[in-house]
Amino acid sequence: MQLIQQNPDIHAYLASDEAIDHWHPLVQETADALWFATGDAYSYAKAAFEFVRDTIAHSADSGDPRVSWRASDVLATRNGICYAKSHALAALLRAQGIPAALCYQRLTEDDGSDPAVHGLVAVRLPGAANWSRIDPRGNKPGVDARFSLDRERLAFPVRPELGEVDYPELHAAPHPAALTALQSSADRPELWRNLPTAL
């Protein structure tokens, strides 16, 4: 699949906004600690990915009812759904000057029912010719997402026969449908009812 930058200016994928608030002290502190432990862009990106994947619980797995959407809040609460965890990873990458985009999939249950939009991240390391998608959702039995730039190792490879879709667009800011669902939901049960079913 050919990934498509929504904004041709690579600097758009380094910007901060209300959700990807990489100027926030907690984001900066976390990014600096990870960089100090690694020291180069590839090692840092892998460490940031594994930090978000492994130390921030996906609230559907943990049962946490709180809804976080700002990167800084995700890091503070160590909780979030896929969109929120993607905001946190994008913020950590951008905090160290690594372009990061938000991207999405439409997924379903195994029988094709209950479609929902899933969020992930694309990264473009210095010197790389292409973007690489990575999924910080969090692993569990049946889900084994990995940091890989040459071959995708996503949490959920799409099944076109069930109507699942990889959206090729690389967003510099959260998609409004995803952000609205997060911001308008008082708790995770309400968020589940508000999740977009398509983009």
Overview features:
C8orf32 fold, 7 helices, globular, 15% strand, two-stranded parallel sheet, four-stranded antiparallel beta sheet, alpha/beta, single chain, 199 residues, 8 strands
Topology:
Layout: E1 4-5, H1 25-38, H2 41-55, E2 57-58, H3 59-62, H4 71-77, E3 79-80, H5 82-95, E4 100-107, E5 116-123, E6 132-134, E7 165-166, E8 169-170, H6 176-183, H7 188-194
Parallel strand pairs: 1-8, 2-3
Antiparallel strand pairs: 4-5, 4-7, 5-6
Helix pairs in contact: 1-2, 1-4, 1-5, 2-5, 4-5
Give your account of this protein's structure.
With 199 residues, the protein is α/β, with parallel strands linked by helices. It has one domain (4-194): C8orf32 fold (Roll). The protein has 7 helices and 8 strands, in the order βααβααβαβββββαα. It has helices spanning 25-38, 41-55, 59-62, 71-77, 82-95, 176-183, 188-194; strands at residues 4-5, 57-58, 79-80, 100-107, 116-123, 132-134, 165-166, 169-170. The strands form 3 sheets. It has a 4-stranded antiparallel sheet, covered by helices on one side. A two-stranded parallel sheet has the order 1-8. A hairpin with an 8-residue loop joins strand 4 (100-107) and strand 5. The mean pLDDT is 96. Residues 39-136 form the Transglutaminase-like domain. This is Transglutaminase family protein.
Structural class: alpha/beta
Report the total helices. Answer: 7
Q: Tell me the overall shape.
A: globular
Low-confidence stretches: none
Give a quick account of the main beta sheet: strands, pairing sense, barrel closure: 4 strands, antiparallel
Query: How far apart are the first and last residues' alpha carbons, in Å?
Result: 17 Å
Mean pLDDT: 96
Helix content percent band: 25-40%
Helices and strands, in N-to-C order?
A: EHHEHHEHEEEEEHH
The level-1 CATH class: Alpha Beta
What amount of the residues lies in strands?
A: 5-15%
What is the total domain count? 1
Pfam families: Transglut_core
Organism: Streptomyces katrae
Protein name: Transglutaminase family protein
InterPro entries: Papain-like_cys_pep_sf, Transglutaminase-like
